[in-house]
Amino acid sequence: MIGESASNSPLLRLDGAQAAFGRLVFGPFTCGVEAGERIAILGPSGAGKSTLLKIIAREQALRCGRVLLDGRALGAWSFPELSRRRAVLPQSTEVAFGLQTELVIGLGRVARAHDPGLPRIVRDAAELACAAHLLDRRFDTLSGGEKARIQLARIFAQLWDAEGGLLLVDEPLAALDPGLQFDLLEHIETFAAARGHAVMAVLHDVNHALLGFDRLLLVREGAITDDLRSGAEALPALEALYGIAFDSATNRHGDLVVLPARRLAPGRMAA
Ligand SMILES: Nc1ncnc2c1ncn2[C@@H]1O[C@H](COP(=O)(O)OP(=O)(O)OP(=O)(O)O)[C@@H](O)[C@H]1O
């Protein structure tokens, strides 16, 4: 478990954090996140990945335990303070009204009373999210993949001029074509690295996790079952997590890639 050995004051610390929906219990989650880490959260559908992300985002109330950001209880942060330190891209990214895309991106910065750089930051964030051509459009007229890019631009804008923050993204690449997936995986990485932001991303694509993240949190049935370095040594745990065998190879750029090969026999799946 690599998250347990974090230094005394990690960027983020979960101590026995638990949430519940009626009798459905998630956690207790215990782990640490250091500044600048890139963490993929993986697991079967319904395992509790988004719930874990919402706990960290302060969007899901705790039944017990605690979450500390910079050593301070998440609940003690004011919303403006929190919004200058962590940004959240939820799985569903609809907005209620027919807003212009610039306004949706600018929503990332509403916590700033004085924001003279806003127009430039909105443009630069849109550029980085491969969405510059979508400025001047109405958000509700965009395709799913276009909306996803505008929402990604919103969280880029939110933490554009911050340092040591935390990006929480839930399936950020799901609605995008393979070319955009590669581009945006790289842009999220360069954006975060330039500012020392940590990234926690819920993903379903194991190759994206292996390619763009240093650490894998595996979630199953409401618990973190493994906390691993990204790489070939994580493959047995990933196979057990999904109940499928992976063939692996190295692509022409030297990256480890996997190909789902077949369903595992029940005896080889995680208990
Ligand atoms: N507000 C809620 N009230 C009741 N049940 C909920 C609520 N939010 C989530 N759940 C349930 O908790 C379980 C975990 O949900 P969660 O969204 O965390 O899963 P996930 O691992 O992100 O799944 P997926 O990969 O399908 O998005 C699901 O069974 C879901 O139906």
TrEMBL record:
Under InterPro entries, the record lists: AAA+_ATPase, ABC_transporter-like_ATP-bd, ABC_transporter-like_CS, P-loop_NTPase
Q: Mind telling me which residue stretches traverse the membrane in this protein?
A: none
Q: Which domain of life is it from?
A: Bacteria
Q: Which GO terms describe its molecular function?
A: ATP binding
Keyword vocabulary terms for this entry: ATP-binding, Cell membrane, Membrane, Nucleotide-binding, Translocase, Transport
- Domain named ABC transporter: residues: 11-246
Show the SUPFAM superfamilies listed in the entry. Answer: P-loop containing nucleoside triphosphate hydrolases
> What Pfam families does UniProt report for this protein, alphabetically?
ABC_tran
The job of this chain, per UniProt, is described as: Part of the ABC transporter complex HmuTUV involved in hemin import. Responsible for energy coupling to the transport system.
Q: What is this protein called?
A: ABC transporter ATP-binding protein
